[in-house]
Amino acid sequence: MKRFLTIIGLILLVSCTTNTESYLEHVNGYWEIDQVIFTDGTKKEYKYNETIDYISINDSLKGFRKKLKPGFNSKYITSKDAEGITVKIENDSLNFYYKTPYANWKETVLSANENQMKVVNDRETVYIYKRYKPLELDLE
């Protein structure tokens, strides 16, 4: 637990010195979970993901997140379900407020750049995403 709190403290320290609004330019696109850090400090690494997340935020700070199943050559299988997102900058934090017919919840973006995004949810579970790179096959 002590190690986890140290990690969160360092992440928050780095976050405080960064303009969280700049994270917005990086969150749109395809993401896959790379690692999850639970509140007790244990980690789960993901070598392979059956689904990825597609995040789309517009200029009015509204958008959605959709689960996709990657196929070959940038083709995706998806359902019509999507989680609505409202983005708010509060107390120097970039927060995503999700809404579905079944639940509402909040995630805070700890960092985001071109290749990686870290978010923490209200249960203090940290999700580390990496930018998804589609599998391209040359079928000639």
From TrEMBL:
The keyword Signal applies. Keywords: Signal. Residues 28-118 form the Lipocalin-like domain. InterPro entries: Lipocalin-like. It comes from the Bacteria. Residues 1-20 form the signal peptide. The keyword Plastid does not apply. This is Lipocalin-like domain-containing protein. It comes from Winogradskyella jejuensis. The lineage of its organism: Bacteria, Pseudomonadati, Bacteroidota, Flavobacteriia, Flavobacteriales.
